[in-house]
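Annex B.
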Amino acid sequence: MAPVNLGKQHPAAYKSVLELNKEVEESVAQAGLDPKLAELVKIRVSQLNGCAFCLRMHTRDALDKGESTDRLAVLAAWWESQYFTGQERAALALAEEVTHLAEPGRHEWDNGSLSDEQVSAISWLAIVMNAWNRIAVRSHYSVAP
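Carboxymuconolactone decarboxylase family protein: predicted structure tokens.
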């Protein structure tokens, strides 16, 4: 069976995810989170999910927003580098926890650098990014040079 493009088969469901994405982006901004941090979260979630389409898109978005190639190069091992702030480290750990569906609760990411509003915004960002990754991977979106 050929790949099925989920968005084309059920455009109303796809549109709902687009609307959720818009709401989450607004929540991230209202929580005072740096747009580059949002892109780092999107990229890290996409790395964990193996979504080439979203990795390419959000890496380009991050670069357009001024992210450095050095930080992008070490993002997959963020905890081992000194490139990321306490808040960024907390956000990345939280996004990984949401992506891996770990037991809910405050864990190593809870270093006090994220407000409750920011924890919620990053959690929603990881949730919606997981949805996009699954849509793109399941639909076999083309990722060619």
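The domain at 12-139 is CATH 1.20.1290.10 (AhpD-like). The chain has one domain: 12-139. Further annotation is deferred to the next reporting cycle.
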